[in-house]
Amino acid sequence: MEEPAPIHTATLWAALAAGVLSMLLLGEGMAVNLLVVAVPATLAAYFAGRRAGRRPRPWALVWGVGGLALLLVPALRAAAWPSFLAVITALAAGSLALHGGRTWPAVLLSPIGVFTSVVTGPVWAWQGLRERVGGDQGRRLGPLLRALVVAAVLLFVFGALFAGADAAFADLLGVLVPDVSVSDGPWRVLLLMVGLFGTLAAARTAAAPAHWDRIQVPAGRARGRVEWALPLIGLVALFAVFNAVQLAVLFGGYDAVLEQTGQTYAEYARQGFWQLLMATLLTLLVIVVALRWAPRTRSSDRTLVRGVLGTLCALALVVVASAVRRMDMYVEAYGLTRLRISVLAVELWLGLVIVLIMAAGVWGARWLPRAVAAGAVAGVLVFGFVSPDGLIAERNVQRYEDTGRFDLEYAQGLSADAVPALDRLEEPLRSCALREIKADMDEANLPWYATSWGDAEARRILDERPLSEGASALECGESEADSLYP
Q1: Which three-class secondary structure state does DSSP give residue 204?
Q2: Cα–Cα dist 138/133, whole Å
Q3: Which of 475, 466, 459, 468 is nearest to 419 (CA)?
Q4: Torsion-angle region of residue 186: left (phi > 0), alpha (psi -120 to 50) or beta?
Q5: H/E/C letters for each residue in 314-354?
Q6: pLDDT one digit per residue (tens) for the chain, 486 residues
Q7: CA atoms within a 13 Å half-sphere pointing along the CA-CB vector of 206
């Protein structure tokens, strides 16, 4: 890794702002506060890159905008699990924006470069700070720091006095200013360090990124045609037979298959999906291995590789479609859960990867690593925006309206994102389904900067239509409820 240029003064201030905002805003949860902290962190990396002579390239802008867009998911959705996935993916996209790169090592290893900068970043900042304190900038920096300290003390003292003198002002101050107590001190200091050191790590990476593109992955030794083609042709034939059976079932109906196998509708769907998901994963592995060891020296070899692997990819897409249909059948029988919607999303993304591999076989694979990564970012973004908990509640409420079956216990474990759909239930089942969700929201009592749009919308609905206080367990319909897990 090359040595970075001296740290920019604007980078130091931006990193300090990110650390202070992390300390003040990130203690209660994830929502719009993540975006607030991300703004100075992004500016710090931008200033560091400009100081080092780097200019944002198109793909770097794609990763940066994608990462910031992913941070909108916690601001919009109350459910923690898609928000956590979005934040992790945003960090990965941010590391790609800082490093650049277009090869598989660059795409897969870029987060490592940011982690190593967690140590070197603060050292780099400390060196730059010492240089400024000892020179002309230090004489200008000292009065500014003293002015900031005096301003903070004055605002704290007079703010406390005015809050004690007027209850309305105290309420306004309580809404706008984070509630920081002495007992929270260690936790707040930790958040300050995370925000400060994390921002400095990003800035250090932007100033001197690791060049993962320079890693040379040795090509596999080409095998003879028979050695690699015969197994793949046999696999293609197996896929063709399986897909023919699937098409026959599709056009002939499931009743004959179920009568012949002795399985129920749900058993047939559940048994097939997981095997087909595994088949999709193994197909991708087979394609990767074949591309590494298949001969490519002659034009006829390249044509054969494209023909065999292209056919395998096309047949694999039919397997993906069959797996998606199996899951749809299973959901029709037993309802939608977080696990089912998650694995369905993974299956659809794997189908996208197969399509990208097919396109790479036609137009070249130079862009494939970044396209696969962009597909993952887009997939996580869509997954968060569509509100998984809301979809689960919507689908299960529709199932209740059609069949009268509803898993009350599972609905009570959903997040506030499910409130708009659950609000359609008839009383007293509506109140029973929403009571646990409302209790969790009341217990959390999050400040404005840690409250998502999903939480705010749920509170609005519950304020407009308060829950019934007299619903008993029997009135809730628990005797008629079924489980989403057969």
Answers
A1: helix
A2: 4
A3: 459
A4: alpha
A5: HHHHHHHHHHHHHHHHHHHHHCCCHHHHHHHHHHHHHHHHH
A6: 567 888 888 898 899 899 989 988 888 888 999 999 999 999 999 999 998 888 888 899 999 999 999 999 999 999 999 999 999 999 999 999 998 878 888 888 888 888 888 888 888 888 887 776 655 555 565 566 666 666 766 766 676 666 667 666 666 666 566 655 545 667 878 888 999 999 999 999 999 888 887 777 666 666 667 777 788 888 899 889 888 877 766 555 666 556 666 666 666 666 667 778 888 888 888 888 887 777 777 777 778 888 888 899 898 898 888 888 878 878 887 888 998 899 899 989 999 999 999 898 888 888 889 999 999 999 999 999 999 999 999 999 998 988 888 888 899 999 999 999 999 998 888 998 999 999 988 888 888 888 999 999 999 999 999 988 755 554 565 434 566 655
A7: 29
- Reading the block at residue 442, the tokens are 């009341």
- State both tokens at 339: 């696990």
